[in-house]
């Protein structure tokens, strides 16, 4: 008996679009993809059915890098470069955060993601036990890391919190929640602290999530201090022994990319944040050519300024064309894969990001009735180049429906809006 049967739906598979088919789901996984005729014979055995008529089923988007509670600081400080933005606007304000505000900001970000087709996110922030609780309650999938800064007075406490987070949550609900260690960046994590992080990663057998080579200034400073690039320096410290998710990697050399490819360092490419903070453009086609796994991320909504992954997919598909004067630099299907199955791989999920038997049932049904969906020559190109996040109509994670016909089923949005207004008043002072 299946738990959920989605009928009369067009399905974006890795082999093309199947018109008017059905998806059978059991225990959180896709168990079969059927013709509509086949589906009518198994319908009686389904606990729940969902009519997908007029919709396109696609894999949920995977946001490989964010600080999701930063939605509270959306449009709070704009038009600044990274270090000015962090040091003079964001860090002083984050010092006023507590569990309640992180709960509110995390609900805001999750509401936004579920509404725009994202079903998995990888987060690095503070008060992460609260984030995990909100992830548990809302039903989304996530990979969580406690941001670690060696220069902070709470540096050792943060390590203990990341350890607790790992021990409490890693593997929760058949890996709906996973945990990584989150050393923030080379400029906040001196070598002695990185050595502690690396020792802890061995002790826990835990992967790493870190900002690396985001700006020219960061690379210059590490070069001055060590004679090496941040990637080469982290490699020499022994950081890459286990899985590493490196956010940004905007300023990397050919040799850096060789190190990343040889050590399975996956990249979270955040094109919109990199543009807005004037950090630059990461050499993504070059990374892919070297065999590096590259996923996409929004970064926080204070540097983006939203959590809409379709915008990142579109930027990934267009930005590199212009940079290289090559329309084939990142074709639509490569950008789509970066937003889904490649992002999933970057987070260590090898059964996520495709609509295929045996894959996790993280599925988004897009309403394709809008004029911007016509004519329908190529649904994948439409998702990459024409669709809006708000076309997401129904969002499913691990076979559970979290948004149906644009109504969020696990978040009380009216209550949340009132809390966000209170938070705005608090952070405005
Ligand atoms: C220690 S928790 C994470 C930390 O990262 C800050 N942050 C947000 N966006 C960026 C970015 O693009 N580069 C580096 N750091 C960033 C966030 O505000 C938190 O303080
Ligand atoms: Zn970031």
From TrEMBL:
Domain Amidohydrolase-related: from-to ranges: 58-402
Binding note for cofactor: Binds 1 zinc ion per subunit.
Cofactors: Zn(2+)
Entry-linked Pfam families: Amidohydro_1
Family, per entry: Belongs to the metallo-dependent hydrolases superfamily. MTA/SAH deaminase family.
Annotated function: Catalyzes the deamination of 5-methylthioadenosine and S-adenosyl-L-homocysteine into 5-methylthioinosine and S-inosyl-L-homocysteine, respectively. Is also able to deaminate adenosine.
Descriptive protein name: 5-methylthioadenosine/S-adenosylhomocysteine deaminase
Species in which this protein is naturally found: Veillonella rodentium
Lineage of the species this protein comes from: Bacteria, Bacillati, Bacillota, Negativicutes, Veillonellales
């Amino acid at each position: 008996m299946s738990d959920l049967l989605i009928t009369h739906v067009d399905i974006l598979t890795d082999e093309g679009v199947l018109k008017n088919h059905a998806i059978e789901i059991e225990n959180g996984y896709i168990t079969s993809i059927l013709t509509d005729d086949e589906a009518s014979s198994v319908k009686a055995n389904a606990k729940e059915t969902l009519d997908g008529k007029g919709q396109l089923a696609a894999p949920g988007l995977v946001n490989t890098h964010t600080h999701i509670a930063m939605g509270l600081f959306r449009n709070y400080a704009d038009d600044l470069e990274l270090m000015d933005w962090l040091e003079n606007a964001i860090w002083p304000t984050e010092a006023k955060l507590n569990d309640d505000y992180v709960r509110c900001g995390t609900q805001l970000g999750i509401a936004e993601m579920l509404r725009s087709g994202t079903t998995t996110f990888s987060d690095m922030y503070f008060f992460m036990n609260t984030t995990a609780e909100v992830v548990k309650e809302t039903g989304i999938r996530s990979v969580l890391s406690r941001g670690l800064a060696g220069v902070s007075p709470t540096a050792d406490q943060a390590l203990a919190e990341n350890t607790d987070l790992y021990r409490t949550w890693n593997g929760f609900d058949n890996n709906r929640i996973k945990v990584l260690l989150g050393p923030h960046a080379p400029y906040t994590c001196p070598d002695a602290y990185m050595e502690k992080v690396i020792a802890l990663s061995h002790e826990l057998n835990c992967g790493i999530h870190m900002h690396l080579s985001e700006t020219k200034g960061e690379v210059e400073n590490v070069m001055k201090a060590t004679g090496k690039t941040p990637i080469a320096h982290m490699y020499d410290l022994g950081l890459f022994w286990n899985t590493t998710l490196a956010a940004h990697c905007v300023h990397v050399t050919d040799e850096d990319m060789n190190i990343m490819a040889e050590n399975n360092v996956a990249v979270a490419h955040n094109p919109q944040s990199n543009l807005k903070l004037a950090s630059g453009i990461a050499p993504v086609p070059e990374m892919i050519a070297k065999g590096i796994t590259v996923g996409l991320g929004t970064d926080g909504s204070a540097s983006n300024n939203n959590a809409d992954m379709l915008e990142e997919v579109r930027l990934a598909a267009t930005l590199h064309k212009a940079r290289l004067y090559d329309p084939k630099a990142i074709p639509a299907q490569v950008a789509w894969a970066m937003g889904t199955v490649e992002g999933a791989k970057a987070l260590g999920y090898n059964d996520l990001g495709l609509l295929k038997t045996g894959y996790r049932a993280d599925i988004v049904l897009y309403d394709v009735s809008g004029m911007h969906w016509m004519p329908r020559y190529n649904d994948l190109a439409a998702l990459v180049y024409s669709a809006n996040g708000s076309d997401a109509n129904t969002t499913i994670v691990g076979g559970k429906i979290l948004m149906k016909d644009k109504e969020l089923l696990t978040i009380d949005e009216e209550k949340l809006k009132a809390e966000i207004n209170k938070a705005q008043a608090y952070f405005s002072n």
